[in-house]
């Protein structure tokens, strides 16, 4: 029996995924969480075999959650189910040790089968997306990515500095580096391009 935890911020999707997976005789959905922090707490409490998570969630994204799982060496396999077919997301997911990456428009039966493959120690990743993911490398560092994401939320350099516990000048440097690497004119264009590529 595969013991699964779900992390998905949209209640309707979360409920549908739980219902779908509970119909399988070899899958038990232990619990579900609406954001990354709640999922992290549930992971430690329930110790599931598999985490099925979305990418975009409030507080902590599914990618950040996978990175935290990897850092703490938790014995849980991560499968991302998302609407985002962005190669940058897949590349970062693979770097974070994710075992499965599926799109929400995949057939329902594919999800259960993919979970079985991952549970057995395999990988379940869309092959076309995998090829595309390695065609263009993410040029941003983690700090540049974090500063750019906050800038895209409308925070000033001073606010970003306070949030990241850095000096104002350091944040300006991170943003300038990101703008230069992406070859755009300002931080908003940099944010848009990085999001479109799946690098944020």
Task: Briefly summarize what is shown.
This protein has 200 residues and is of the alpha/beta class.
Describe the structure.
The protein has 200 residues and is α/β, with parallel strands linked by helices. The protein has two domains: 2-133, Response regulator (Rossmann fold), CATH 3.40.50; 142-197, Winged helix-like DNA-binding domain superfamily/Winged helix DNA-binding domain (Arc Repressor Mutant, subunit A), CATH 1.10.10. 53% of the residues lie in helices and 14% in strands. A six-stranded parallel beta sheet has the order 2-1-3-4-5-6, sandwiched between helices. Helix 3 (62-71) links the parallel strand 3 and strand 4. Helix 8 packs across helix 9.
Blueprint of the fold:
Elements: E1 2-7, H1 11-22, E2 27-33, H2 36-46, E3 50-53, H3 62-71, E4 77-82, H4 87-95, E5 100-103, H5 108-119, E6 124-125, H6 127-133, H7 142-152, H8 157-164, H9 168-182, H10 187-197
Parallel strand pairs: 1-2, 1-3, 3-4, 4-5, 5-6
